[in-house]
Design brief:
The structure is a single chain. The chain has 176 residues and is of the alpha/beta class. It has one domain: Alpha-Beta Barrel (fumarase). The chain has 5 helices and 8 strands. It has a 5-stranded mixed barrel. The radius of gyration is 15 Å and the shape is globular. The mean pLDDT is 91.
Length: 176
């Protein structure tokens, strides 16, 4: 690892297809801008909204977005396992709806890696560093399903969120 920041990629939301094409498995990056947060309680509900064309009524624009697999609690944010059935099964439909970056932790299935590639999306893992991540939140707002409390669908404004690309262009760091 180099002693300067030239080895990492710095990106902001919204994320373009050009940025996605430039990312590769193993790339270290930092992300700034607005991101969405949700995990197993809310992501299937979000997919239902997409399927019923109700997402626009909530004022949610997923084009070029990032979704962090986490709850937003007063104690902070940290990644949850992305391979939970409810989360992983939402990644394809959410990518098709415009999500470019899924952020979480853990290995995802080869089929999911292929769906991400099909919809020009990538998956990044983020270290479980709750204190650092929480300190890098500038704004937070529950944008849908607020009745779920910390499990609601949130939008955060973040800066310099560190992560590593774990799946991109049909490849995964978990493959042998």
């Amino acid at each position: 690892m180099k002693n300067d920041d030239t080895w990492k990629k710095i990106i902001t939301t919204p994320i373009t297809d050009e940025i996605i094409r430039s990312l590769h498995v193993g790339d270290f990056l930092t992300l700034s801008g607005f991101i969405y947060c949700g995990r197993d309680a809310v992501l299937p509900k979000l997919v239902e909204l997409i399927n019923s064309d109700g997402i626009e009524n909530k004022g949610i624009d997923l084009n070029g977005s990032a979704i962090f697999h986490t709850a937003v609690s007063p104690a902070g944010v940290g990644p949850t396992s992305s391979n939970k059935l409810e989360i992983e099964s939402s990644m394809g439909p959410l990518s098709k709806a415009g999500v470019k970056l899924h952020i979480g932790k853990g290995q995802i299935k080869k089929e999911t890696v292929q769906l991400l590639d099909k919809y020009h999306s990538v998956y990044a893992v983020i270290p479980p560093i709750t204190a650092i991540l929480t300190d890098r939140i500038e704004e937070r707002e529950a944008v849908a399903f607020s009745e779920l409390g910390m499990e609601a669908f949130y939008r955060l404004k973040v800066f310099d969120y560190p992560m590593i690309i774990a799946a991109a262009h049909g490849e995964s760091i978990y493959e042998e």
